[in-house]
Design brief:
Elements lengths: L5 E12 L2 E13 L9 E7 L8 E6 L1 H17 L14
Length: 94
Amino acid sequence: MCTYLTEKIAIDGSGKGAQGYFALSEAMVYVDHPQHAPYEHTVNIDFLNPAQGPAARVAVELTEEAALALAEAIRHALDVAPPGLASAAGTPGR
């Protein structure tokens, strides 16, 4: 069953596609049929920059378990790093 529910957020970072790195401006997360992963449904995450066209997209299809493990790993990495280390506010020139 597809939920048709999409979480869209503004992000600031970089992604690597076929043509190299590009700036990212949004991410979308949804549960739907994957295009490539061998499962009926996956947690799909699209990292993109619509201003740069369809090639400026990195797509990820994860099982529910993998998506939850990734979210936990991100939270853990940020918890053990010095506060603000990866923050845009701490970057010179920002």
